[in-house]
Design brief:
Blueprint lengths: L2 E7 L4 H11 L5 E8 L6 H7 L4 E3 L8 H15 L3 E4 L16 E5 L14 H10 L3 E8 L9 E8 L6 H26 L8
Parallel strand pairs: 1-2, 1-4, 2-3, 4-5
Antiparallel strand pairs: 5-6, 6-7
Helix pairs in contact: 1-5, 4-5
Bound molecules: 5-O-phosphono-beta-D-ribofuranosylamine.
Length: 200
Amino acid sequence: MTTPLAFFISGTGGNALNLVKACREGRVSGRPVLAIASSPKAGGIVRLEDEGLPVAVVERKAFDSDEAFSAACYHEVETRGAKVICLAGWLKKLHVPPKWEGRILNIHPGLLPEFGGPGMYGMNVHRAVREAGARESGCTVHLVDNQYDHGAHLAESRVPVLPADTAEDLQRRVYVEEMRLYPEALEAFLKSRDYFTSGV
Ligand code: GRF
C-alpha cells in the first residue's frame, strides 16, 4: 500500500525530486500525485514535470489572506487525492486547518529550535549558524503547524561546522544530509501511521 503524496516547492525542487526518486525506487512507500509551486518561476516546475508529475502554480498574491491561499493549495491537493504533504523548499506561510494537522512534513536546513523561526530560511540559516559560532549544524524533518518551524520533530541529522567553513560550505554539507534524511524520515512516518483510514 502506498500513500498518495503532494510536494510543495518554491525553488529548485531538489528535495521534492529526491523524494519522487525514493518513491519510485521503493525506498519510500509513497505515490507522488502532484506538486504545488508558489511561483511560476520556481526552477523545480520543469524538473518535476519532466518526471511526469503534474505541477499546479498557486501564487500568494492572488489571495487576500494566508488562509485563503492555503485553502486553494489544499483544494488542488484534495482534488488529486493526496493524503500527506511534503514541504520541500516551500517559502510561503501555510495555514494548517485541523483536518491537515499531523499530515504535513517539512525539512529545515538547520537545527531546531535554535536556528528556526521567521526569517530563518535558506542561506540565512547557515549565516546565523556561522555568526553564532556553533560547532554543529544539521537538518530537521518536522511536522508543520501554525507556527514557523515549530511542529514535532520526526528526525534530525547533525554535521560539524568547521572553522574555515563559509555559509556556502555549510549549505553544501547540510544539503547532502537532507538528501539522505528526508526520504528516511518520510518512510518512517508513513510506516507509523495509516493514512487510508482517515478521510481528507
Ligand atoms: C532546502 O535546504 C530545505 O531544507 C529548505 O529549502 C531548501 C530547498 O532546497 N527547506 P531545494 O529547492 O529542495 O533544492
